[in-house]
Write a structure and sequence with these properties.
The protein is α+β, with helices and mostly antiparallel strands. It is about 35% helix and about 25% strand. A hairpin with a 5-residue loop joins strand 3 and strand 4. The longest helix is centred in the middle third of the chain and has 15 residues. Pfam families: AsnC_trans_reg2 (PF17805), NirdL-like_HTH (PF22451).
Length: about 325
């Protein structure tokens, strides 16, 4: 596989992964290579860290319970506390950011009780109050990366990635086993859905239809190659937080979500008096200057010049993996 074909593999199949018995053969046919070439490339890229996994990305709070959380940790204890936070299997992202609240992490659990248990333990073990910032409304959540500069967000794409989170879906026992089997990624084999089916005791057809159903319900947001932005050259990223009047947040959030360079945009609750901000968005760039230039584009494009904001650059990644929404069978 040459460089151009590898670029297409990484860029074109972050979405629209073929729901077919032999998906990698279908991709190979479109790229003009052999199935073995695709599997070898993905295996190598996963080993290198460029690809996190090939699999499903679930919509936050569509199943189970999840939240963004933050701690203000003394610098001399940051490594110790970050290691402790990352040790929880329920924590799937954990980053240091430039702010008084310097440790930001995502917790995902099968239910709200389990989520609150983890947050309480982290609070007790760290000795710091946890900022609890669950999703209220999303205006764009799709952490895919266009590596060509040619893609544009269509109206239908924006609509499908916008809105209040759906009422959490309660999966059946079989669906829970399926979610547990695919949440860490599909196996890189010729018939991945058959391999998943064998693991959970159902047919290949049942797995494919089960995935299709979770798509229709909005539980699965996308299926495909999940890349790591830093390894792709996006070495600067910032979470920009805004203090928006409550009556304006939906309108301004929708405006920001349409911008090509905004990868995440969502409303979360204020946590007064410690945290005044209610609109969050992520910008990724090749360097800080690019991110700050895009921040100015955001201000100008959506009329945010008068709105207070802070820019929290990421400085260290302690953990990044797929969320765990269901417990694997013992």
């Amino acid at each position: 596989m040459n460089a151009a074909q590898e670029l297409r593999l990484l860029n074109d199949y972050q979405h629209d992964f073929p729901l077919l018995p032999q998906p990698f053969a279908a991709i190979a046919g479109r790229l003009g290579v052999d199935q073995a070439d695709v599997l070898q490339a993905l295996t190598r890229l996963q080993q290198q860290g460029t690809v996190s996994r090939v699999g499903a990305v679930f919509r936050p709070r569509s199943i189970g319970a999840s939240t963004l959380a933050a701690l203000a940790v003394a610098e001399e204890r940051l490594d110790e506390v970050a290691q402790m936070v990352s040790s929880y299997p329920e924590v799937n992202h954990n980053y240091q950011r430039e702010h008084l609240y310097n440790l930001w992490f995502v917790v995902t659990a099968p239910d709200e009780v389990a989520l609150q248990r983890v947050l309480k333990e982290i609070e007790e073990r760290s000795g710091s109050k946890v900022l609890f910032l669950p999703l209220v409304e999303d205006y764009h959540i799709d952490l895919g990366f266009d590596m060509t500069g040619c893609k544009r967000k269509s109206d239908s794409f924006i609509e499908s990635h916008t809105g209040a989170p759906p009422k959490p879906y309660l999966p059946s026992e079989q669906e829970s086993r399926l979610i547990a089997a695919i949440q860490s990624g599909l196996p890189l084999v010729e018939r991945p859905f058959a391999a998943v089916g064998e693991a959970v005791g159902v047919s290949e057809t049942d797995v494919i239809e089960g995935v299709r159903k979770l798509f229709r319900l909005g539980v699965i947001k996308r299926l495909g190659v999940v890349v790591r932005h830093h390894e792709l050259g996006y070495r600067a990223n910032a979470m920009v937080v805004w203090d928006i009047p409550d009556e304006e947040v939906s309108q301004l959030g929708a405006c920001l979500g349409k911008l090509e360079f905004v990868t995440l945009c969502y409303r979360r609750p204020r946590c007064l008096p410690a945290w005044r901000y209610n609109l969050f968005c992520m910008i990724h760039g090749h360097d800080r200057e690019e991110v700050l230039a895009r921040l100015e584009e955001m201000r100008q494009g959506c009329g945010l010049q008068h709105i207070a904001c802070e820019v929290l650059f990421s400085t260290r990644r302690f953990k990044q993996c797929g969320a765990r929404y269901a417990r694997a069978a013992a």
